[in-house]
């Protein structure tokens, strides 16, 4: 069940699956890093998200993301960056030993912090996929998570999908519906 993903065995399994990637990412410089905060909200496992400020300049304003940001020269590695940025953005101190592994870099700045329970994310009616076309031809498909306070899409949805596969391998069954794309 969902509580199993937070068990000691679930943590061991996730750490083992992430070990190779963690070692690789910690050993080389990166431009940015994120933290995927797994938490309990009223006793229910959830992922914590942020909403980037709508006052930001550029294409990422108002987007849902995980806490994180650019690496500083004094950061020891991507985990240090993710933890420092999470503390700066949310005031949330996470001990380094609570990090199960490393994920890919993402950018920062928030307007709102919210969570989506794992139960919500795992319900198929809250999952979807967006097909992207270019020049009238199908290019790629990305996941999207719906019916929360904000739509989770883009790289954050990809990271969410990876995290759900890792935490709930027997429960999360991504469904990729490839639809016929009309030609223009």
From TrEMBL:
Domain of life: Eukaryota
Domain Nudix hydrolase per the UniProt entry, residue ranges: 25-180
UniProt-recorded Gene Ontology molecular function terms: coenzyme A diphosphatase activity; metal ion binding
InterPro entries per UniProt: CoAse (IPR045121), NUDIX_hydrolase-like_dom_sf (IPR015797), NUDIX_hydrolase_dom (IPR000086)
Cofactor: Mg(2+); Mn(2+)
Xref: Pfam families: NUDIX
Keywords, ordered alphabetically: Hydrolase, Magnesium, Manganese, Metal-binding
PANTHER family: MITOCHONDRIAL COENZYME A DIPHOSPHATASE NUDT8, NUDIX HYDROLASE
Protein name in the entry: Nucleoside diphosphate-linked moiety X motif 8 isoform X3
Gene: Nudt8
């Amino acid at each position: 069940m969902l509580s199993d993903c937070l068990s000691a065995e679930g943590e061991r399994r996730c750490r083992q699956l992430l070990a190779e990637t963690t070692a690789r990412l910690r050993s080389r410089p990166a431009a940015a890093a994120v933290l995927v905060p797994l938490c309990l909200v009223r006793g229910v496992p959830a992922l914590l998200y942020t909403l980037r400020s709508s006052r930001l300049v550029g294409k990422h304003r108002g987007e849902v993301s995980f806490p994180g940001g650019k690496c500083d020269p004094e950061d020891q590695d991507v985990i240090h960056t993710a933890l420092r940025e999470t503390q700066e953005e949310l005031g949330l101190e996470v001990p380094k030993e609570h990090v199960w592994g490393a994920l890919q870099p993402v950018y920062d700045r928030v307007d709102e912090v919210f969570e989506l329970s794992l139960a919500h994310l795992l319900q198929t009616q809250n999952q979807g996929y967006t097909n992207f076309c270019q020049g009238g031809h199908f290019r790629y498909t990305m996941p999207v998570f719906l019916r929360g306070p904000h739509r989770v899409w883009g790289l954050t949805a990809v990271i969410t999908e990876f995290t759900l596969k890792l935490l709930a391998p027997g429960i999360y069954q991504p469904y990729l519906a490839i639809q016929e794309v009309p030609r223009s």
